[in-house]
Amino acid sequence: MSIPMPNLDTSPHVSDEVRKTTCYMCACRCGINVHMKDGKVAYIEGNRDHPVNKGVLCAKGSAGIMQHNAPSRLRAPMRRVGPRGSGQFEEISWDEALEQAVGWLKPIRETAPEKLAFFTGRDQSQSFTGLWAQQFGTPNFAAHGGFCSVNMATAGIYTMGGAFWEFGAPDWERTKLFMIFGVAEDHDSNPIKMGLGRLKERGAKVIGVNPIRTGYNAVADEWVGITPGMDGLFILSLVHELMRAGKIDLEYLARFTNAPVLLDSDPKSDDYGMFLRDDDGKMLVIDRRTGKPAPFDQKGVQPDLNGHIRMAGVTHVTVMNQMAERYLDAKYSPDVVGPQCGISAERIRRIAAEIARVAFDEAIELDHSWTDFRGDTHDKMVGRPVSFHAMRGISAHSNGFQTCRSLHMLQIILGSVETPGGFRFKPPYPKPSTAHPKPHFTATPGKPLDGPHLGYPQGPEDLALHEDGSPIRIDKAFTWEHPLSAHGLMHMVISNAHAGDPYKVDTLFLYMANMAWNSSMNTRSVMEMLTDTDENGDYVIPNIIYSDAYSSEMVAYADLILPDTTYLERHDCISLLDRPISEPEAAADAIRWPVVEPDRDVRGFQSVLIDLAARLGLPGFVNDDGSAKFEDYADYIVNHQRKPGIGPLAGWRMGENGLSDGRGEPNEAQIDSYIANGGFGVFHIPDDAQFYKPWNNAYQDWAVNLGLYDAPAPYLFDIYVEPLRKFQRAAEGHGDRQPPEHLRERLKHTMDPLPLWYAPLSDEREDLEEFPVHALTQRPMAMYHSWGTQNAWLRQIHGHNPLYLPTHWWEKLGLSDGDWVRVTSSHGEITVPAAHMAALNENTVWTWNAIGKRKGAWALEDGAPEATKGFLLNHLIHELLPPKGDGLRWANSDPITGQAAWFDLRVKMEKAEAPAESQPGFAPIKSPVGTGPDQLRWKVGK
User: Fold this and answer.
1) Coiled-coil regions in this chain (predicted)?
2) Residues 132 and 184 in one domain
3) CA-to-CA dists, residue 766 to 491, 771, 776, angstroms
4) Distance CA 358, CA 596 (A)
5) d(CA 26, CA 57)
6) Does residue 692 lie within any of the structural domains?
7) Before 833, cis peptide (omega within 30)?
8) 732 with 864, same domain?
C-alpha cells in the first residue's frame, strides 16, 4: 500500500511582474530581478544577463527585500528639538527642511564657502556629489575612500593607470596562478566567487596571503598567514628572488614601462633623480639600434634597459639600473625578510620559483596581431598567466601606498598586466595620473570652485596650501602631511573641525556616513566632539545636516535630517564618469530606478541636492532666468552633459544618424531604454583591442570613439614615479615651495619614487613589548558596512561577533569556550567575548566589523545581541597617532595619501570576568522610528 503524498506546489506563482535593476547591498552593483506581486516586492534574484554577476546573487543581494522593508527606515524630514545625541526630533515638511538647509548654506556660500564641509559615504555617485560641492564653491568635499582603500587606488593610478577591483580584474579564463593579498569577503564578492570557481574547474592554483584564513583564503590551495603590515616586505622579497633568477620580462619592461628611461644621475644637478628629457619634454631612452638617446615614443625605437649616457663627466643611468641596485640588495633576501614577515625563507623562495615557472614556462600566446603606439606590429599577444588581487588588508596601513606600489611593480616585472592570463583593466581605465585632473581648491564667495576637488598632484606646486603654508582644506588633504590624498581624509574632518585646525566650520553636511559609530576611529571621542560646546554654550560644530535611509547611530547627532529612500525607490546612475560596472572585455554602466514608490515622506538624496542647488542658485543647476534646470535626479541623468556629447550614461544617446553609444546628445527615452535592457548598457571592446590597452592603437581608437578619451593617449607604466621624486627633492631643499622642517625627513624617506617598505608609523610611538598583538577587523561576506546587521535575514548569520584569538594566545591566556577578554590599546579598552581560531597568524586577533550596534539605533531592541555581545574595535583606535611631545597633531594615516591606518592597531590582552554586556557600554539613544516588531512578516499577494 503506497503512502499518500501531500499535494505540493513545487512551482508557485512567484510574481506577476519582474522589474530589473541594480543591487545596492554591497559595492558589486550586480544585476537583480525584482519580482513584484500586487505592486509589492515579493522576491529578488540575480539577473542572468547582467555582465557583473550573470545571475549569481549572494546572501546580501537576496536579503535586499528585508533592507527595503526594514523597520529602521526613516519616515520624514526631522528637526532636532533636544540636545545633540538625545535623538529627540520633530517631523517637519520638506519645504521646512530645505528652507532650513538653505538658511544655513546660503550665507556661507556668499561669505566663506569653505565653512561648509560636505562629505559623503559609500554613495556611488561621487561624480554628481562632487559637482554639487564644486558649484557650491567649498573646497571641503570628499567621499569615503580615505577610510577604505585610497592607497590601493592611488598607488595603482600613479604606477600603472589603474588598480584592482573597480579598475580591473584577473583574466579568469586564462590565469594559472592567482594570488590574493588582504582580501576580505565583502568587496566584489560575486565576481570573485565566480572567478574562483572557474579557476578551480581548470585546476589553477590559488594562494591567499592574509593573517586571517576565512572566505577566499579558506578555499585557497595555499594560505600564507603573514604578519600584518609586512606584505610589502614579502612582495619585495619575491621581487628580489625573481630579479636574482633573471625571471622578469625584459622585453615588456623595455617596451611598456619607464624602466629604460634615463635618470639625471648628477647629485649636483637641480634635476637630480628626474628623467632626462629632450627639448619637447619627452622622456629619453637609449635606442638599442643606434646606441644614442631618443624620445621614448619615437617610431621604431627599441629602448635599452641597460642604456646609459655620459655627459659632463657624469654617467646617467636608467630606472632599471636603480631597480637592480635596490632590489638585489641582501636586505630583501628571504633569509632576512622571512623572520620579520612570519614566513620561512624556504617558503618565500618556493613561492617566487612557482610564480616564475608559471609566468615563463607556461606562457600563453594568442594568435592576434596588434599594433603598438610606436607603430610596431606584433603577430602575437604573449601572456604571463599569473594574476593578483588585493584590497583593504594591504591598503589600510600607514605603509600601504608603497606596499600597493610594490605589488603593482611585481605584476609589471612579470609582464602580467594587460596581457593574456594576467591583470586586465576595466574601461574607462587605464588612465595614468596625468590624465586625471589635479586638485582644485580656490574658493571665492558666491562663485563655484575653480575645478574638481580631487585629483592627482604632479608636484609640490599642486598642493592645497595658502601663501603662508597653512592647509586650505579642513581635512588637510593635498598638504605636506599627505600630498597625494586623492580621496581626501574623511576620518579627520570632525577632529580637525572640532580642534579648529586649520579652522572652524559652520556646517557639516554628511550623507550615509555613520561617523558617530562604525565609520570613525576613536568612536567615543567623536561622539563627544559632535556634542561639545564652547564657552558660550554653543556647539563647537554649529550645524550638522545628515541624510540617511535608516535610523543609524549618526542620526541622533544631527540637527536636520533629510531622509533618503531605499535603493529600490530611487534613481541612481552607475556611470563611466564615476564607478562603472565595466568588465575587461567591455565598458558598461547601469541605473537604478524606482521599482516601487516610497510609502513614507522620503526623497532620494541626489534629487534633494538638485532641489537645494536650485534654491541656492548654483551655476549649472539653474537656467539663465534662475529657474531650476533639472526637475530631479532622473532628469539630471538624462540631460546633464559633463562636456558636449558626454553625459552620465553612455548608452542610447542621440547621434547624427540615430542612436549611438558613448558620444551623443541627450535622449529623453534614455532611462526607458536602460530599463528595457535590464538596467544596464554594455559596449564591447573589439577582439584586437582586448589586451595591451595602454599601448594598443586599436584600443586607443575605440576608447576615443566611446568618449573615454578625446584623443589617443598611450603612456608608459611608471615603476619610477617622478612626482614622488619632486616631493622628495623639495624635502631635500630644492624648489620654490618648501615643506616645514618637521616633515622633511619623513618626506625624504616615504616619498621614494621606487617602491620600498618601512614599518608602520605607529610602531615608533608604541611600546611594542607592552602591545605585542596586532588587532584587525574585516567585513563578512553576508554584511556590508553597518547596513546588514539591521537586516532581519542577515543578522541571523552574524547577530554578534567574538574576538578571534590564535592558538598561541588562547593557550597563553588559559581561555575556554565562553570566556571573555579585556583588550587594551594605547588609546582605549574593550571587554568582549573570545573565540579560538587556529587558522590565524599567531600574533594577530580579529573580529567582524560593524556588527556591534549602539542601543536605540537601527530599530533594534536594547537587548539585541548586536548591542549586548556585539562590539567594535573602533573604540581602541584613534585618528591621531600617540603624541611624541612636539605639540603637533599627527594623523594616524598613510603619510603619502592620508589613508586611515585602521590595521596598524596593536593591543595587549588578558582574561576577564564576563560582564553583563560587551564593554564599553553607552546609554541607549532615542530613535525617531522606535523599535521594530518582534517578528517581521507581511503577506505579498494572495
Assistant:
1) none
2) no
3) 21, 7, 17
4) 51
5) 11
6) no
7) no
8) no
Bridge partners, residue 410, by sequence: none
CATH number of the domain that 531 lies in? 3.40.50.740
**What's the confidence (pLDDT) of residue 320?**
98
- Three cell numbers written together for 35: 519580482
Which three three-digit cell numbers place residue 505? 566650520
285 vs 421: CA distance, rounded Å: 29
How many Cβ atoms are within 10 Å of 324's Cβ, its own excluded?
Answer: 17
Helices 231-245 & 345-356 angle (0-180, nearest 10): 60
What's the whole-number mean pLDDT along residues 567-573?
97
Q: Domain holding 893: CATH number?
A: 2.40.40.20
Question: Would you state the torsion angle of the CA atoms of residues 778, 781, 784, 789, taken in this order, to the nearest 10 degrees?
Answer: -100
Residue type, 651: G
783 pLDDT above the threshold of 90: no
Residue corresponding to grid cell 576620518: 491
* CA dihedral (207, 210, 212, 215) positive or negative: negative
> Model confidence over 796-839: pLDDT tens digits?
998 999 999 999 999 999 999 999 999 999 999 999 999 999 99
Cis omega before residue 584 (within 30°)?
Answer: no
Among 494, 529, 563, which residue terminates a domain? 563
Same domain, 209 and 131: no
What average pLDDT does this structure show over 220-243? 98
pLDDT of residue 942: 63
594 falls within a domain: no
Overall size of the chain counted in residues: 942
Angle between helices 334-341 and 345-356 (to 10 degrees): 110
Distance between CA 67 and CA 134 in Å, rounded? Answer: 32
Residue 255 pLDDT greater than 90, yes or no: yes
Residue with cell 520638506: 94
Grid coordinates belonging to 868 = 549586548
Q: Average pLDDT, whole number, for the chain?
A: 95
Query: Among 492, 459, 486, 456, which Cα is nearest to 474's?
Result: 492
Q: Are 382 and 419 in contact (CB under 8 A)?
A: yes
Q: At what angle do helices 605-616 and 126-136 cross, to 10 degrees?
A: 20
Give a yes or no: residue 17 inside a domain. no
What pLDDT digit, counting tens, does each position of 210-223 carry?
999 999 999 999 99
Q: Does 775 share its domain with 907?
A: yes
- 3-class state of residue 477 by DSSP: coil
Domain assignment of residue 417, given as a range: 162-230+342-368+383-396+412-423
pLDDT band at 148 (very low <50, low <70, confident <90, very high): confident
DSSP category for residue 853: -
Is residue 575 a part of any domain in this protein?
no
Which pLDDT value is given to residue 1? 56
Query: Are residues 470 and 387 part of one domain?
Result: no
User: Which CATH number goes with the domain that contains 222?
Assistant: 3.40.228.10
Block residue for cell numbers 594623523: 891
Which amino acid is residue 45, in one-letter code? E
> What's the whole-number mean pLDDT along residues 665-673?
98
Number of domains in the chain: 4
Q: Catalogue the E-assigned strands of 838-889.
A: 844-848
pTM, rounded to two decimals: 0.97
Residue 857 has pLDDT above 60, yes or no: yes
Q: CA 169, CA 198: separation in Å to the nearest integer?
A: 14
Which cell is 497 given?
A: 573641525
Asked if residue 180 and residue 112 are part of one domain, the reply reads no
Residues 140 and 172 in one domain: no
Q: Is the pLDDT of residue 108 over 90?
A: yes
Gyration radius (Cα) of the chain, Å: 27
Q: Each residue of 542-568: pLDDT tens digit? A: 999 999 999 999 999 999 999 999 999
Domain end, chosen from 545, 563, 581, is at: 563
Query: Based on the domain organization, do 768 and 894 belong to the same domain?
Result: yes
Other Cβ atoms within 10 Å of 131 Cβ, number: 24
Model confidence pLDDT, tens digit, residues 914-934? 999 999 999 999 999 999 998
Contact 846, 775 (CB under 8 A): yes
pLDDT at 788: 76
Cell numbers representing residue 560 in the block:
536636520
